[in-house]
Amino acid sequence: MQSNPQLNENGELRHLLSIEGLPRDVLTGILDTAASFVGVTEREVKKVPLLRGKSVFNLFFEPSTRTRTTFEIAAKRLSADVINLNVAVSSQTKGESLLDTVSNLSAMQADLFVVRHGSSGAPYLIAQHVKPHEHVINAGDGRHAHPTQGLLDLYTIRHYKQDFGALRVAIVGDILHSRVARSLIHGLTTLGTPEVRVIGPKTLLPAGVEALGVKVFNDMREGLLGADVVVMLRLQNERMRGALLPSAQEFFKHYGLTAQKLALAKPDAIVMHPGPMNRGVEIDSSVADGPHSVILPQVTFGIAVRMAVMSIVAGN
Amino acid sequence: MKILIRNGRVIDPASGRDAAGDLAIADGRLCEALSGKPDRVIDATGLVVAPGLIDIAARLREPGYEYKATLESEMDAAVAGGVTSLACPPDTDPPLDEPGLVDMLRRRAKVLSRARVYPIGALTVKLAGERLTEMAELAEAGCVAFSQADEPIPDTQVLWRALQYAATFGFPVWLRVEDHWLARGGVAHDGELATRLGLPGIPVFAETVALGVLLELVRATGTRVHLCRLSSAGAVELVRRAKTEGLPISCDVGIHHLHLSDLDLGYFDAHCRLVPPLRSQRDRDALAAGLADGTIDCVCSDHTPVDEDQKQMPFSEAEPGATGLELLLPLVLKWGAQQKLPLATVLARVTSDAARVLGVHSGRLQAGAPADVVVFDPDAAWRVSAEALRSQGKNTPYIGYELGARVRYTLVAGNVVFEQT
Amino acid sequence: MNPLPDAEKLCAQLAAKLKPAVKPSTAMIGLYTGGVWLAERLHATLAIAEPLGTMDIAFYRDDYHQQGLARDPKRTQIPFAVEGRDLLLVDDVLYTGRTVRAAMNELFDYGRPASISLVVLADRGGRELPICAQYCGCTVEVAKGMRLRLLRDDMGKLKLALQDAK
Question: Do the beta carbons of residue B71 and residue B325 sit within 8 Å?
Fold first, then answer.
C-alpha cells in the first residue's frame, strides 16, 4: 500500500486525500480548472452538466454546516444528486464500523464520497475499500489534512498575489491541531513559496514542524514583519481547558490579529481565515471586516475549487 | 523414545558450541550418546540444530479473548515458529490475579502438550494499580514474575510498595516504562512523522521519565526489575548506565521494534499501530545496537493476535498489536545478519539470554537438560501470508513479505510437536 | 497527397461571405483554441461592434465519462447578453459535430439567442450529429487517424496543419 493512493495507474487524480504527495502540475491543474468554474459561478445559470446522474454522498462524521453546505452547492452546480449523511448521529452510534457504513452506501450506488472524520487517516481507509468507479474526497480528517481548504487558500493567494515564488506567508495560531495549516503548508512548499512561517506559542506547535519546511516564530510581531499573506487559524475553546493555553484574552493579546500588528506586514498584505471566526480571540473585527481581509472571497472561491476537484476526480 | 538428530550444525549459545554433529535424545532429555538403536532418526543435513526458542512475551488470549485466538491455535503457532517455552502477560480477561486462573491456564497448556507456558502474574488486582495481588500465592500456582502488562500504576506510592513487597520474596517485577500522563491520548511517536500524519504523539520522554523514576525506586528497594519493550535510544542509554552501576535490572525489545520505525506507518497502516509506538530510525538503530552489545538482554515477539476488523479502522482507533510467534526466528536472524553477528550470539538472544531473564534452566543443549530443540533451515525463504500463519492473528506489517528461515522440527521434552519438510 | 488550402486566403474569403450578414447587434463567439484565433481575425476584419466572446466547452463535452476532464480548461467569457441575439459561432474545423452541440448547450445556459450561425474554416466531413455550417471556408478530406488543426505562428499568421490524432 505504499504507492500514492490518490493517483491511479496513469498518475491521474482518482481521490483527493491530501495535498501532500500531489505533483506540482496536478495542483496547478486544479487551480486552473477552478478559475474556469469561477466564471460559471458568476453567470446566471450556475450549473454545468458534468456530474449529471452521479450521486455525491456527503459523509460527515464530524458536524459541520459550512463545509458541508459548500460541497453540496458545488455538487449541485455540477448537476449531481446530493445526499447528506450526518453519520455522527445515525449508525455510528449503533456501533457500525466505518467500513460497514461505506459498504452500505456503496450498495446504494454512490459515485463520490465527501468524507469528514475526526480520526486522521480515515479517508485513506475508505479509499482502500471503495469500488473502482467510486471516488473519495477528504473534507477534513482529524489533524491531518483538509485539502480542499488548502486548495481554496492557494487559489485565493494566487488570485491576489499571482506569483508564489516571491511570497512570505505567515500562518498564525493553533498549528498543532490544524489540518488546515498542514494542507496549506504542503501546498505552499510544493508551489515554491520561499518563506512559509508558522507563528504560535510553543504549546500549539507540533514536534518537528520545521521538517515541513517552515520557519517557526513564537513572537507574532517578528513573524508578521514583511509578510505578504497572513492566515489566521481558528482557536477552539477546548484548548483553554486542556492546559495548552490559560485564556482567550492572553491569547488575543499575543497572537490575535489587530490593525496595529497587521501594520507590520506589507502594506498590501492580505488577511485570510478558514472560518468560522472567533472575533476578539484570533482576529479583531476591524481587521476581519477591513480592506486587507479576503475572507469572504475565500468562501466564493471555495465553491469553484470544490467544483474543480469533484469534476477532475469523477472523470478519472 | 530415543531420537537421534543427525548431521546438523549444532549451536548451543550457552556453551559456545557451534559445530557439525549429532544430538541424542532419550526419555525426554538430551544425552551424550544413545544406547542402542534410535526409534527415530532426523536428518539435519544443511539445517541448524539449536535450543528451542524462548519467547518471554506472547499473548495467548485465553482466558477471555477466545474470539481473538485460542490456546490451541496460538500454541500451534508457537511450535511452528520453533518456540518451545513462552511467558504470557497477565492481561487476560479476567487478568491473572488469582491463583485459580493461573492454575487453569497451566493445566490447559499442559494438556495441549506443545510449548511450555510460564504465566506472568498480575502485580496489582485487576491490573488497576491500586491493591497488591497475593504474589506468594500466585508464585506457588506457577507465576515466575509479576507485571502490569500495558496498564499503568500512576500512583508512585503504590508502585514503590509493590516493588518492596515483591522484593520481600525475591520475585522479579516486569514493567513497561511509560508515564501514563505524558503518553495520554498519544498513538504514535511524537515527531516529524506524527506531525505530518496529524496523529497525537507520545514523546520519548514519556518512556525516559518513567524509566528514571523506576530506576530510583530500584536503587531504593533492590527489587529485581525487568523492563519490557524498550522503544527509544534514550532508554537504552539510561539502562546502559544503570547496568554499569550494578542495578539488578534486565530488559527486552519487541522484535518489530528492531526492524521498523515510524516511517513504516506509510499511509496510516494500522498494522504498525503498536504499543509502545514505533519510533524514529535513530531509536530503532539504537535498539538494534543495544541488543547486539547486550545492553538489551533479549528479544521477544510481543505476540498479540488482533481481529482483522479491529485493524480495519482509522489508525488511532485501531487496536494495537502484531502477531509474532512465527516471525520471531526469521526476524531475529535478519537482525543478526544486519549486525554481522555470529549465529550463536544471535540465537542466544532468544534462548539462553531469554532463559536467564525468565529464570528457567532451559534454553541450552546440555546433557541431562530437557530436550527442547528446534531444527531449522536458515536459508529457506517463505512468504508471510494469512494462510501461512497458524496463529489466529494475521495482523503483521510483514504480510506479503518474504522472510528467511523455516522451522523443520520442533521438539518439546523429547517429543516432536511440529514438523514440516 | 493534396496540399492543404491556404488558411489566410480562406479567412479573407469567409470574411467576404459574412459581411452582408453582420448587423450592429451581431455578436461573435470563438471556440478554443483554433476557433478563437479565427474569430479574432474575423472580428477585426469585419469590425464587429460587440466585443468578442470566447468559449471553452470542457464542461459540456459528451465524452467526460470516458476521457475525464480536459487537462487545461480555458475560461469561457461572454461579454454581451446572449438573450435575443444573432450569434456567429466560430470554430476552425467541423468534424463529428459534437463540439458544436456542446457549445450550443453551453450557450443556452447564458440565455436564449435569436439565432446561431456556424462559421468554420474547414469541414472535414465525418458528421455523427445533424450539424452543418452556414459559412464554410472549404472541405478537406482527412485520413482517419489524423487531426486537422488551425495553427498560428508568432507573427499571427494562420495555417492549417495535419497532426496525428494522438
Answer: no
ipTM of the shown complex: 0.91
DSSP string, B20-64: EEEEEEETTEEESS-SS--SEEEE-TT-EEEEPEEES-B---TTT
Hey, is C6 helix, strand or coil?
A: coil
| Residue found by looking up cell 500531489 in the block | A22
Decide: A177 and A143 in contact? Cβ < 8 Å.
Answer: yes
In whole angstroms, give the CA distance from residue B306 to residue A121.
20
Chain segment A221-260, per-residue pLDDT in tens: 999 999 999 999 999 877 777 789 999 999 999 999 999 9
Spot the catalytic one: B302, B353, B372, B377: B302
What is the value of pTM for the model shown? 0.91
Strand order in the sheet with B173-176: B121-122, B146-147, B173-176, B225-228, B249-254, B298-300
Task: Summarize pLDDT for A93-113 with one digit per residue, the tens.
Answer: 566 788 888 888 888 888 999
Chains B/C: 3 or more C-beta pairs closer than 8 A? Answer: no
Q: How far apart are alpha carbons B247 and B225 in whole angstroms? A: 9
Active site residue B302: yes
Task: Return the residue matching grid coordinates 479509499.
Answer: A127
The count of other CB atoms within 10 Å of the CB of residue C112 is 10
SS3 per-residue string spanning B61-105: CCCCCCCCCCHHHHHHHHHHCCEEEEEECCCCCCCCCCHHHHHHH
Weakest-pLDDT range from A91-100, A123-132, B100-109, C69-78: A91-100
Walking along chain C (166 residues) 10 residues at a time, the average pLDDT comes out as 83 94 95 94 95 95 89 89 96 96 95 96 94 94 90 91 86
Q: Which of C78, C98, C72 is nearest to C29 (CA)?
A: C78
Question: Which of 45-64 (A) contact C at CB < 8 A?
Answer: 45, 47-50
**Would you state the cell numbers that stand for residue A293, as one nine-digit string?**
481581509
What residue of A is the nearest CA neighbor of C75?
Answer: A36
Judge: C59–A312 Cβ closer than 8 Å, yes or no: no
Helices B281-292 & B328-339 angle (0-180, nearest 10): 90
Of A121, A143, A211, the CB nearest to B268: A121
Q: Which residue of B has its CA nearest to A125?
A: B314
| 3-state secondary structure (DSSP) of residue B120 | coil
A229-232 β-sheet, strand order: A215-217, A195-199, A168-172, A229-232, A270-272
Helix (H, G, I), strand (E, B) or coil at A155: helix
